[in-house]
Amino acid sequence: MKKLFILCCLMLTLPAGAQAADEKIDPSNFICAELVAISSTSGQPPLFEGLQIDGYAAAAQGKAVADPDIMAPLLEQVYAACQAKPTEKVVTLWQEARKNQPVAADGPWRADKTTCKDYKANEDDGSGFVIWLDGYNRQKSGKPGSVLESDDTLKAYLDACSKKPEALMLDVMRESVK
């Protein structure tokens, strides 16, 4: 569990020049060719994008738990399907694949329960949750605004969260996204 979130955390801590030029995606319009290209270019699984898509798909399915144990199988299954269907929307394939995965009913990272204090107590593990929660929030709100727009918007969100330790991370995110 920690390995996936730590990898995502490392992606967030890389200098801006070392990060992908356009990490924030629009999960509703992200197509398979883009997913495959990211993997081919970086040589790494597209974890950052996968977390955004999974959060978006989870919200659409009414699932509030970020379950890192399903990320590797989902990425593998969707990547294979995407190679055969480059024009297909990734979220469509992801939602179908997610239906077939046993998803945790509870866990430390929940859109409906995780507070800013919870995040502060475990920032290393929580960085991946922020990425997941951003996708979740965009699906739930129906708005494209994202805390992942830039380093500044992410920093502003995390600063706002640190000032409201008892608030749900999701509520602070909704307030932070314009």
Automatic annotation (TrEMBL):
The organism's place on the tree of life at top rank: Bacteria
Pfam short name (any one): HdeA
The name this protein goes by in its record: HdeA/HdeB family protein
Keyword annotations of the record: Signal
Span of the signal peptide: 1-20
